[in-house]
Amino acid sequence: MKIDGRINRSLKTKAKILMAAQNIFKDLGYKNTTVNKIAMAAGAAHGTVYIHFPEGKDEILAHFMTGLMDEFYSVADIEFEPKTTEEAYEIIRSQIFQFLSLAKKYKTELLLFYEGIQVSQLLKEKWGYINENFIKRICSDITYSQSLNLANEETDPEIAARILFYNLEHFLWDIIHNRVSFTEESIAKNLTQIYMYGLYNQ
User: Fold this and answer.
1) Which residues contact 88 (CB under 8 A, 6 or more apart)?
2) CA-to-CA distance for 59 and 65, rounded, in angstroms?
3) Where does the pLDDT of residue 117 fall: very low under 50, low under 70, confident under 90, or very high at 90 and above?
4) CB 125: neighbour CB atoms within 10 A?
5) Closest CA to 182 of 79, 56, 96, 57
6) pLDDT at residue 1 greater than cutoff 50
7) The model's pTM
8) How high is the pLDDT of residue 105?
9) CB count, 10 Å around CB of 97?
10) DSSP summary character for residue 181
11) For the chain: N or C, fewer Cβ within 10 A?
12) Is 202's pLDDT higher than 80?
């Protein structure tokens, strides 16, 4: 399908704005990044940035947040069909390890998100929405385990899912702020053991 010339130019301009914003955010941080600086770096007018992103720099950062966290979500989306408690343990341990490893890999980007979440309602809501998607997937995995009598049927899946994810999120922020000396392997092992001891039938 042929793309209209105006639409094509608009898409190119939006891509230039996003590329420029990514560099500005990384160089200056959330607080010092402005729409004007993004526009100058992209070679676009100040108002053009708002045409594509009406909420300004917060909307741009939310765009980056969604894209990056999709990679984290791919870890949660790994097929979860254990037939035994041992299989469940290994899948969960691996998922937690990969999640924390991604936190370390994308430390710079996550620090940006953290800074923005503290002051922007839009970014705070976006982060909350992303978190809820993680929790829903974990909840689904727990329900599956309960259906096979691997996990305690009396445990509320959503509460258990929130307990695991809130701990994961806490360690994510600890890792990017250099507040822990533990390895990702050690955190994954211990968190999995504690989580499974309370949820899974031994």
Assistant:
1) 80, 82, 145, 150, 151, 196, 200
2) 10
3) very high
4) 12
5) 96
6) no
7) 0.89
8) 96
9) 20
10) -
11) N
12) no
Between 103 and 8, the more confident residue is 103
Q: Which helix (H) or strand (E) holds 198?
A: helix 184-199
What is the DSSP code (8-state) at residue 154? T
Q: Can you name the residues that pair with 200 across neighbouring β-strands? A: 151
Neighbouring CB atoms inside 10 A of 101's CB total: 15
CA atoms within 13 Å, Cβ hemisphere of 139 = 11
CB distance 75 to 134 below 8 Å: no
Torsion over CA of 11, 67, 124 and 78, rounded to 10 degrees? 150
Contacting residues for 51 by C-beta, under 8 A, at least 6 apart: none
Half-sphere exposure of 21 (CA within 13 A, CB side): 29
List phi, psi (to 5°) of 179.
-95, 0
Q: Residue 178 has what DSSP assignment?
A: T
Q: How many Cα atoms sit within 13 Å of 50 on the Cβ side?
A: 6
pLDDT in tens, 34-71: 999 999 999 999 999 999 999 999 999 999 999 999 99
Query: For residue 142, is pLDDT > 50?
Result: yes
